[in-house]
Amino acid sequence: MPVDSASFEGERPSSTPKKTVLLMTVKEMDAIVSSSIRELQKATPENERMIKERECEMNTKKHKLLDFIRDELEGDIKGTIRALDIIKEEYDEQCKRHETVRTVAVGLRICKRTRDTF
């Protein structure tokens, strides 16, 4: 089953994590390259040129696949960083509100003590 450059750019099953699908695709491509080269090597020495062409073609496809994986993972990492930044901003905001509430509560206790004293 040949793998072309479009095959790894398609939809993935939603139940399988993206990284798993991409790594499975790399392993499948390695298996295809190995089996194709073995078939050509079994033939005749005149197929040596064809073997080199096939290796070059498959290496190109593998490089494209690895570039695609890198881009996908890079996008995931950037998305995660953005999400963490948003969470941090929300946390900082909550801390500020909590500090304000705490300050008001301390102020109210001081007012109550002052009132109770007089």
Question: Any overview of this molecule?
Answer:
The structure is a single chain. The protein has 118 residues and is mostly helical. The protein has one domain (18-117). The chain contains two helices and no strands. It has helices at 18-42, 48-117. The radius of gyration is 30 Å and the shape is rod-shaped. Residues 1-13 have low confidence and may be disordered.
How big a fraction of the residues is strand?
under 5%
Poorly predicted segments: 1-13
Total number of beta strands: 0
Q: Helix share of residues?
A: over 70%
Shape: rod-shaped
| Mean pLDDT level | 74
Order of helices and strands: HH
| Rg, Å, rounded | 30 Å
How many domain regions? 1
What is the structure about, briefly put?
This protein is mostly helical. The protein has one domain (18-117).
Structure keywords:
single chain, mainly alpha, 0% strand
Mind sketching the topology for me?
Elements: H1 18-42, H2 48-117
Helix pairs in contact: 1-2
